[in-house]
Amino acid sequence: MQDYKDLRTSGYLYVDKTALIYKLATEGKQYFLSRPRRFGKSLLLSTIAYYFEGCKDLFEGLAIEKLETEWAQHPVFYIDMNKESYTDFQSLLSGLGTNLRGLESVWGSNPEEDTPTARFEGLIRRAYEQTGKGVVVLFDEYDKPLIETMDKPETNERIRQELKGFYGLMKSMDKYLRFVMYSGVTKFSKISIFSDLNQPKDISQSSVYAEICGITEKEMIDNFESDIRELADATNKSYEETLSELRRRYDGYHFAKNSAGLYNPFSLLNTLDDKEFGTYWYKTGTPTFLVKLIASGEMDISNFEDKVSIEANRIDEFKVGEYSPVPILYQSGYLTIKNYIPEDNIYVLGFPNEEVKYSFLDDLTPTFLPLKNQNPIDFSAYKFAVAIRAGDIDAFMGLLRARFAAIPYDLKGKSERSYQLGFYLIFTLMGQYCQTEVKSAKGRADAVVMTKDAIYVFEFKLQPGSTAEEALAQIDDRGYLIPYTADHRRLVKVGVEFSKKERGISRWLLKNS
To answer: What is the C-alpha separation between 57 and 52, in angstroms, rounded?
Structure first.
């Protein structure tokens, strides 16, 4: 639910964030907050709106009830950029017009104000003059017009220029304002609000405000224990097993150097409501422009497993036209902070949780492993897992051979890197159904798959030049099996040849150890 009043008056549960809202309202004036979609930004702004409208009764029993004493009423301008889908410049004017007409019905209009920025300025002045109170301006999803036109450079630039003046107006109207907040997914460096003087305070990576959106594990347990127990009963798990599953799937977001992990609230609440684990946040899929950015460069997606590094001063903004998708991958929730290296001022990023990891890689698979007149269901990770769990390595390798054979012959860049990336995607996606480890450091086998009865160690070689026999020898020579020798399960070595000539897997050898 995104409307705070509706939530509070209809008997729903609210995880109390009002102490942080009071801190915002009393310690500053203009703010910017970036968070991934479905993380509660709209609900946060709605809560702030009712607070500044003086609706004391809606905050009964919450932290802010004991902190606030005045409950002054201010004119609140809620600019909701979600009201429109942005395909061209006209759709931007339509979206701004919808917002402004609603405000003009309350505060009046002036026919001489003939641009969105002029109309906005007039509205702020009139509201201040009519009430004698500073105006509160809340921008919800300020960046949506820019994100939705990123694949249309000319339209994007024209929209940016219009928004530059519209949003930047807040700098010159400071004396008429009580509070301003911009919220969105990403921080666009070329929007004027992030340059010059009087720019808003960016709290996106503030440790103080890290928990203002999202749900901590403590908040989850304190507020939803009975729901978690119902989920445990519905899924035939213990309470502790259910907590562990929730943690793996939906926890793990970090928005500051030293902050608690946060659950994606949309996925968590849907899971508790449906009483089953699913991929709720991800159902809308990866934006096309992100897939294009990743596919067009040399980015190794296997590094998304906690090995993406970026300078701290580059993580918080995205520059249109630059190749690196890392800042927007972080800001939009596909990567999150895993570590901070202070001596180098470097962040290390990785997937926040399994929901994002598996869904993201599944979305990328058609781009990196396109099929030639084949049904993707025939090559789902589940089918690979079923074969290997049954101990049928020949069936598994047959699927793997067929998957690579289904890639079009004219695939650009069908090289050793293409094969490595292909097997990484397949083996990693199998991790949803059985335990897998994919090569992440020098001296480890290319892939390890663990089932109830056996542990399979894979080594891949590219022909001409290397053979399946050499792959088996390498497993022995480098001691890839040593970590598993104390395990009771059967150990199986699998040497695999990729053939450049045949454009796929040519042969494989198995050997029990």
So the answer is: 13
Q: What angle do CA 144, 316, 46 make, to 5 degrees?
A: 45
For helices 116-131 and 153-172, the axis angle rounded to 10 degrees is 20
CA dihedral 149, 153, 154, 159 (to 10 degrees): 40
User: Which residue bears the tokens 């009393």?
Assistant: 26
The rounded distance, in Å, linking the Cα atoms of 446 and 59 is 56
One-letter amino acid of 489: R
pLDDT value at residue 212: 97
Q: How many CB atoms lie within 10 A of CB 66?
A: 12
Inter-residue contact 431 to 358 (CB < 8 Å):
yes
Bin 409: left if φ > 0, else alpha if -120 < ψ < 50, else beta: alpha
CB 202 within 8 A of CB 316: yes
Per-residue model confidence (pLDDT) at position 411:
45
Tell me which residue of 48, 92, 141 sits closest to 331, measured CA to CA.
141
DSSP symbol at 424 = H
- Euclidean distance between CA atoms 382 and 386, whole angstroms: 6
Helices (H), 216-306: 217-234, 239-250, 265-274, 288-296
Which pLDDT tens digit goes with each residue over 41-89?
A: 999 999 999 999 999 999 999 999 999 999 999 999 999 999 899 999 9
Contact between 351 and 335 under an 8 Å Cβ cutoff? The reply is yes
Burial class (CB in 10 A: 0-12, 13-18, 19+), 197: exposed
pTM: 0.88
Give the CA radius of gyration of the chain. Answer: 27
Question: Given the structure tokens 């042969």, which residue do they identify?
Answer: 507
DSSP β-bridge partners for residue 506: none
